[in-house]
Structure formats: C-alpha cells, structure tokens
Design goal:
Layout (H helix, E strand, L loop, with lengths): L4 H11 L5 E5 L5 E6 L3 E6 L4 E7 L26 E2 L28 E8 L2 E9 L2 H6 L4 E9 L3 E9 L5 E3 L1 E3 L2 E3 L7 E3 L5 E4 L5 E4 L4 E2 L4 E5 L6 E5 L4 E8 L3 E6 L1 H5 L13 E8 L5 E3 L4 E12 L3
Antiparallel strand pairs: 1-2, 2-3, 3-4, 5-11, 6-7, 7-8, 8-9, 9-23, 10-22, 11-21, 12-21, 13-16, 13-18, 14-15, 14-17, 17-20, 18-19, 19-23, 20-21
Bound molecules: 6-O-phosphono-beta-D-tagatofuranose (TA6).
C-alpha cells in the first residue's frame, strides 16, 4: 500500500530527530528510516524491518544491496538484512496453502510498525514491531509479537525479540539473513568455523565438518550447528575485516549462490553474486526455539568493520 505524504508527515511528527533521523520515501514508494549521525549512517525500510545500509564513519558501505531488488508488498528485498521468521527456507507443507507459504516465513515481506527512534550518545536505536494477524494465522496458527531493535553506532547491533502471546507452546525458526558487501567473493575468507559441523543445503542437508577457514570457489549453502562462534570476514579487495558476533543463536548460515543460482535470480542479475557473502545468525533445524506462552526469546547480532591495516 503506497505511503502518502500525510503518512510520512505523521511518521516524522512522531519519530523524526532533526539532523539525525527522518522517515523518507525509498524505492517503490516504501517508507524508510534514514539515520545520519557522527558515528554512522544507515537506512531501514519499514517493509520487513529491513536494514539496507550501514556505513560507519570513515568506512565504505558494509551491507550489500542488489541493484535489481524488488520493493513491494509480498516480496523480500534482495540484500540488506532480511528477517526470517517463523520458519527458515521453504516451509515443508508450503504448497498446502493458497497462496503458498513464502520462503523464510512471512515477516520479511510485510510492513512493520515503527515503534521508536531513540538517540543515546553516539547511538541511535530504531525499534520496529509486527505481530500475528488473520493473514499470518493462515500459514502459522500461533500468536506472536516480534520486535526488531537496530542500534546504529560505530558498530551495528540487531536484536530480534520474539514473544509468545498465545496460550500454547510454539516452536519457531529465525535468522538475521545478513548480506555483507565484499570486493570479490573469490578473495575473501571467513575465519572461526574450523571444526564445526554443518548441514550442507547444496548436498541434501548432509552433515559435514568444516576444515579450516571458509573460502569460496562454488555455491556454498551451509548451516553450521551448535555454534556461538564469533567470526571474521577478511576482505583483501576492500582492505577490511568485518567482525560478526552473536548471542542467543546456535546456528550460523553461510551462503553464496554462485553463478549457478544467481543467473536464475531476476532480483540479482549480472555479476552481483561476486560482491556479497551471507553470514546469518540463526536458530534453525534442530536448534529451532520452543517458546512457552508469555515467554520471549532474544537473538542478537553485532557487527564491526575495521581496516585490515589497523
Ligand atoms: O541463507 C541461505 C538460503 O536459505 C539459501 O538456501 C537461499 O534460498 C537463500 O537463503 C536466499 O533465499 P531467498 O528466499 O531470499 O531467495
């Protein structure tokens, strides 16, 4: 649904912070929060509570965003940080529904409510929420509230807080499906998963073990299990190291489609697949989260970027 000038004015009346935070019309006429501060700038669409840019002061853009991304209800923006909930990848019974249940759940393809923008020191915390409704219950018969709190400073912190607002236990999967911008996928390495078991989604989810650092020479789609490891993405072409830590997450997913899948992705195109790597804090497969009524679960991802020569 298009955002009117009045909607935008009402949003800015409630949430704008002069010189720091404003809500503007983004691609596809979708509203986005635009953050500009001493420490960093960032952009977050209300659609999917989807961060599409984080640019620490003095650094280059850290987040990849496809030049062919689609910006519309019912579609996920390609790139940025899609929020996957309450299931990961295809729902096993997706086709039993009309319309079919969407991949990676339904919260990344709908507008979230902007709850608050808080300026504390050099940090700006943007909170957005969504909740179950009759539309979501068609696909997933549980009542929930989800809050995404994104804190922008010289680091990027994303917290996904899920609350069971229903009367019975439910079990959910989740991921902060972060696309990191890289100079050249062939040259990067991800350090920190040596020896960790993973399920290889490019090979029938067979269980394997990571030997050494992750380097990329083909499609990779690995779900590492029972790991809270802090990782480093080393990018020689951009001369930088991205540190990725997390709390409340037992899985890390590493993905690049390679040319193999990218050529069939209309919202990616060209050689863009060579310029991102997905490193995702998640709770999926055997690490899905059972949540009792009234309880909440918090998954946090914290990202820092620094020069390699530092
Ligand atoms: O995170 C890896 C993955 O699950 C891959 O299997 C691939 O499907 C990717 O997510 C992107 O999914 P999407 O639905 O956004 O195209």
């Amino acid at each position: 649904m298009a955002t009117t000038t009045l909607d935008l004015q009402q949003l800015n009346d409630r949430f704008a912070i002069p010189g720091v935070a404003q809500i503007v019309l983004g691609e596809g006429g979708l509203p986005k929060v635009k953050i500009t501060s001493v420490a960093a700038s960032a952009e977050i669409y209300l659609h999917g509570a989807h961060l599409t840019s984080w640019l620490p002061a003095g650094a280059e853009e850290v987040i990849f965003l496809s030049s062919k991304a689609q910006y519309q209800d019912g579609k996920a923006i390609r790139g940025g940080v899609p929020v996957c909930f309450p299931w990961f990848n295809a729902k096993s019974d997706a086709k039993h529904y009309d319309p079919p249940a969407p991949a990676h759940g339904f919260v990344r393809i709908k507008a979230w409510e902007l709850e608050s923008i808080i300026h504390e020191g050099n940090a700006i915390a943007v909170s957005l929420s969504t909740a179950s409704d009759e539309g979501t219950r068609k696909w997933w018969p549980h009542d929930f509230h989800a809050l995404q709190r994104i804190t922008i400073s010289s680091q990027l912190q994303m917290e996904l807080i899920v609350t069971n607002t229903g009367a019975s236990l439910f079990t959910f999967e989740e991921a902060l499906h972060t696309y990191y911008r890289v100079g050249d996928i062939h040259d990067i390495r991800i350090v920190g998963l040596d020896g960790v078991s993973y399920l290889d989604n490019a090979d029938g989810l067979r269980e394997k073990h990571q030997h050494g650092d992750n380097i990329f020479s083909q499609r990779i789609d690995n779900a590492y299990v029972n790991t809270e490891a802090e990782l480093e993405l080393i990018d020689p072409a951009l001369g930088r190291r991205i540190s990725i830590s997390k709390h409340g997450s037992q899985n890390t997913v590493i993905w690049n489609p390679w040319d193999e899948l990218a050529k069939g992705m209309s919202d990616l195109g060209g050689d863009q697949w060579q310029h991102f790597a997905c490193v995702e804090a998640a709770n999926i497969h055997g690490n899905a989260i059972p949540l009792q009524p009234g309880k909440e679960h918090i998954m946090t991802a914290i990202i820092r970027a620094e020069r390699l020569d530092q």
